[in-house]
Amino acid sequence: MSIVKWTKEDFLVFEINGLDERMEALNNIIRPKFHELSETFSGYFSAQTGEEFFGHVAKHARRTVNPPKDSWVAFAPYKRGYKSLPHFQIGLWGTHLFIVVAIIYEAPQKYEMAQRLLTDIHTLKNLPDDYVISGDHMQPSAISLKEARGEKLEQLLIRLRDVKKGEFLIGRHIEAKEAVQMSAEQFLQLAEKTFDELLPIYEVIQGKN
Question: Which domains can be identified in the chain, with CATH numbers?
Answer without folding.
Answer: 8-206 (3.30.930.20)
